[in-house]
Amino acid sequence: MCQHGTDPELIKQVVKQQFYIIGAVTLNNLLLRKDMCSWSKGMQIRYNVSQLEEWLRDKSLMMCGAKETLEPLIQAAQLLQVKKKTDEDAEAICSMCNSLSTAQIVKVLNLYTPVNEFEERVSVAFIRTIQTRLRDRSETPQLLMDTKVIYPVTFPFNPSSLALETIQIPGSLNLGFLTRV
Ligand SMILES: *[C@@H]1O[C@H](CO)[C@@H](O)[C@H](O)[C@H]1NC(C)=O
After folding, report:
1. DSSP 173
2. More confident site: 77 or 142
3. How far apart are CA 45 and CA 79, in angstroms?
4. Phi, psi dihedrals of residue 130, rounded to the nearest 5°
């Protein structure tokens, strides 16, 4: 896009849209695949997301809203990594996962697979505690992310410094029917 001289404002919007799709598709996979729900996958996802963030920083795109679209995925990855045992853990999880729906949090906790035999599965009682704490949240009971969301596009007006009356239209474009007024 840079090579084609695309307006920087449009580039930002395209990047944000793409990051949303990456985050939504990845989170949906995580929510549907047990093999994605472990401490080590959480770590891999955090690492991979940090690479994406670094790319944004590299391209000076940190402020285009793209990073924010990854927030649900980041929180799900963190959820895989934090302790899930005591009431304090439950409280921490509830305040950390504010970009995830209750259905998503519960699903991740249910799918969570311990890395080794020394770690326990998340207890039913713990999941109940979470559900009780989040009962008063006003939210849609959404499990999967809508991967078809399209952000509105705005085309900035950037006046060209070229004077239109001086433009020569190349004959090869076959635009002979155009007349200058
Ligand atoms: C992280 O990214 C690598 C490629 O860089 C990929 O092979 C791997 O599957 C990703 N991990 C997860 C959990 O998505």
Report:
1. G
2. 77
3. 11
4. -60, -45
pLDDT band for 169, please (50, 70, 90 cuts).
Answer: confident
Q: Where are the domains of the chain?
A: 8-142
Round to whole Å and give the CA distance between 160 and 66: 28
Q: Is 29 in the pocket of ligand 1 (CB under 6 A)?
A: no
Q: Is the CB of 41 under 6 A from ligand 1?
A: yes
Q: Which of 36, 48, 49, 111 to mutate to test the pocket of ligand 1 (most atoms within 8 A of CB)?
A: 48
pTM: 0.87
Give me the mean pLDDT over the 11-24 stretch.
97
Residue 47 alpha carbon, nearest atom of ligand 1: 1
Which band of pLDDT confidence, cut at 50, 70 and 90, is reported for residue 89? very high
